[in-house]
TrEMBL record:
Protein name per UniProt: Glycosyltransferase RgtA/B/C/D-like domain-containing protein
Record field: transmembrane: 23-41, 82-114, 167-194, 206-225, 262-282, 294-311, 317-338, 345-366
Keywords, alphabetical: Membrane, Transmembrane, Transmembrane helix
Species assigned in the record: Saccharopolyspora mangrovi
Length: 494
């Protein structure tokens, strides 16, 4: 056996130090690129993103968990995203700038956590940057900026890092943060726990961490707002009619309205699913066992997609993001493993995919005027223009929304009401949902709303209605997925 020399020991101590010295350079580079990406997309955030931004503004400037100050609501799907955006708004003075800060920090965290997970599992560290690049340039993820999916990507990277390094405490904290980001993201730590028995040895650590992080908010929400889970579960499934399309079949619909970006988003997801299957088979043959955490993340994405398909929820494009994010992570891990033996093919394939996504993003506009994958009736610019005009007419009086409320409410900064902003509409939605529900879902909804106290909807003085076809140029709206229509502002009938 060769005895290590002083020179060998110096080199072995120097390598980790050299790797650590590269982290600030890596983080700075990712931050600069991510800031440029946010500038590219900042004018194209979808309507639901502005619901979140309106919540953040109300919390930051008025201390209210609401879209309309003084009217508490519980329709913010992601409590953690709202809290982070509100904190950013206090510092930066604008929810949009706060969204940019959250996006940049999330992308830096994603690159660093994937890099560390790669090191812990014997995969080349460049996989971290490659994975963050593929995820961060995906047309699907960029169509969700302002929503919670960039934050979810960073937390999934942290979850992977915790599993790869067998960090039980960190696993619990990240699991709690995922549940605070979206309740349905609990699927990922559950799948990991089923596939990683080693974590059960320190079960009290991750359980304590998860409860300490997530339980306070959900206890407060259940007792104060009367619902454990945000009202969006009810809103998004109540009388949802997408022409018979649901998550399981919605890819066809999205492909019809946005074929190129949907294909670009689907390619890494499909390839990642194939890699999940291949790496499971390889593990049975004794190869690539250290990469098992990456496989579990991919399985979590598949399980999330299956769960949403079984629930038959409408195919909002961000519902596909967890699948795309997680399977892309698995894909990059598989590419790293193959590249350690056959360097050219996986590197070339990954570079080609990344280049295609970047070229599309730049060709879509500088900056974007609309998200490439979205189903809103109008663009952000349309609704922003109309929201300012509505403010001049209605003042402090209330107006019923036409069905899409986020951008209008943000730029009007007035009392635009519907089920997202006025909890008086929740009682009717809940009664109808309970009437349609089976025994299990009925019991779950009744438990969730056990402490809910119904209130009357706020009376409105005006109504915004959507009418097909063009109208007054100022009130006309259109998008890449919908033909021109126009909004009509009229007095409410008494």
């Amino acid at each position: 056996m060769q005895v290590p020399t002083a020179e060998h020991e110096a080199i072995s101590h120097e390598a980790p130090a050299r790797r650590r010295s590269r982290l600030p350079v890596l983080a700075g580079g990712v931050a600069v690129v991510s800031a440029g990406v946010f500038w590219l997309v900042h004018d194209a955030m979808v309507d639901d993103a502005y619901i979140t931004l309106t919540y953040a503004r109300s919390l930051a400037f008025h201390g209210d968990w609401a879209m309309i100050p003084g009217m508490p609501a519980n329709s913010a799907t992601s409590p953690l995203n709202v809290l982070l955006l509100a904190a950013g708004t206090l510092v930066l003075g604008s929810p949009v700038r706060a969204a940019g800060a959250v996006f940049v920090i999330a992308m830096v965290a994603l690159a660093l956590t994937l890099r560390r997970a790669a090191q812990d599992t014997g995969i080349p560290p460049w996989v971290g940057v490659a994975g963050a690049g593929l995820i961060g340039s995906s047309p699907l993820l960029l169509s969700t900026v302002g929503l919670e999916m960039p934050l979810a990507a960073a937390l999934l990277g942290a979850l992977l890092m915790a599993v790869a390094g067998r960090r039980a405490w960190l696993f619990g904290v990240v699991a709690g943060l995922l549940v605070l980001t979206r309740v349905d993201l609990a699927v990922f730590p559950l799948v990991v726990l089923l596939g990683c028995p080693a974590l059960w040895r320190g079960w009290w650590k991750w359980l304590t961490g998860a409860i300490a992080v997530a339980a306070p908010w959900y206890a407060f929400s259940w007792l104060h707002f009367g619902s454990l889970i945000p009202d969006t579960l009810l809103i998004k499934t109540w009388r949802a009619d997408w022409g018979g399309y649901y998550v399981a079949t919605g890819f066809e619909l999205l492909h019809q309205v946005a074929p190129v970006p949907v294909v670009l988003a689907a390619v890494p997801a499909v390839a990642g699913v194939l890699c999940v299957i291949g790496m499971i088979l390889a593990r049975q043959l004794g190869w690539g066992r250290r990469a098992w955490p990456w496989v579990l993340l991919g399985l979590g994405g598949i399980a999330h997609y299956v769960a949403y398909s079984l629930l038959k929820v409408p195919p909002y494009h961000w519902y596909y993001a967890p699948l795309v994010i997680a399977t892309t992570m698995t894909l990059t891990a598989a590419g790293g493993l193959v590249a350690s033996r056959v360097q050219v093919l996986p590197v070339a394939a990954g570079a080609a995919l990344l280049a295609a996504q970047v070229v599309f993003a730049l060709a879509w506009g500088l900056p974007w005027q609309a998200a490439p994958i979205m189903t809103n009736w109008g663009t952000t610019a349309d609704y922003a223009r109309i929201g300012g005009a509505v403010k001049q007419v209605v003042g402090d009086r209330a107006v019923a929304s036409p069905g899409e409320i986020g951008v209008l409410a943000y730029f009007c900064d007035c009392a635009i009401v519907d089920q997202f902003s006025d909890r008086g509409h929740v009682a009717r939605s809940l009664a109808d949902r309970l009437e349609q529900a089976g025994p299990l879902s009925r019991n779950l909804f009744e438990f969730n709303y056990r402490h809910f106290v119904p209130t009357e909807p706020r009376p409105v003085d005006f109504v915004l209605r959507r009418v097909m076809g063009p109208g007054d140029p100022f009130w006309t709206i259109s998008s890449t997925t919908h033909p021109p229509s126009h909004l009509v502002l009229e007095p409410a009938s008494r």
